[in-house]
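Sample intake sheet
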Amino acid sequence: MSHPDFKPLSLMSASPVAAAAAAQSWTPLPYADLPRYDAHSLLPHWPRLHAGHALPPPPSGHPLADGWALYHNGEFERAAALGLAHGPEGLVLANQATAVYANYLEPRESVRLSMFRQVIERAAAQVGAEPDNCHALYWQAYALGRYSQGISVARALAQGLGSKLKGALERVIELQPQHADAHIALAAFHAEVIDKVGALVGRMTYGVRAEMSVELFERGLELHPHSPSALMEYGRALLMLHGDARLGEATQLYEKAAALKPADAKERLDVELARAGLTD
């Protein structure tokens, strides 16, 4: 098993060789064994597919329904383009498709970071116009978190990105207490900061606590118990906070994630990550 935190976070290598060989277009989803949706079949499955963040579905027949079907089928590039073509109304789709693709499939590190910056900037602009848009706040925070991991958490904290991320997620939970993904992301932030700067500095400087991390994870999984990404994040956090003493529990969380039946392309990628994390 990979140790100490079940790397990798991405399924694609970011090596110079991979970067040089990669085509300019987005890397296609490498798996075909997942459910397929169209604009009509998507809507009955919407509550399950969006259990982590309770996004309202598009009206039947709306072009964004086609875009969301593309996203859930793993056609992230087409989904992002369609979202951008619909202006502010399509920004959640565009940001989600871009951020998820960048996190899981983009092999070029510079491109990955650029994509996260695009999401951060688009979401921040939307938050500026709509301060209570919890979906814009969430994708801003998600991209900030992944971008911070890419440049190093310590460097990101020094640049003040951690405070922006934490504030955005806390606001999401304030606006939408049932937002499971925000609970999980904030829980992971607490654990990651403690891992990098220690419990004392983390508490005094960034307001993070190990017990709060666990509390947020438990609440997030209560809201969305079948989220493979949440199970993996919890497993990684237990190792960051407690080390080998919680290795057995962390392994069980990864095993549970690896055994889940994915509902869409993103969950299929998560299941594959869980399997990779369990492989030496």
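Comment: Residues 1-23 have pLDDT under 50 and may be disordered. The chain is about 70% helix and 0% strand.
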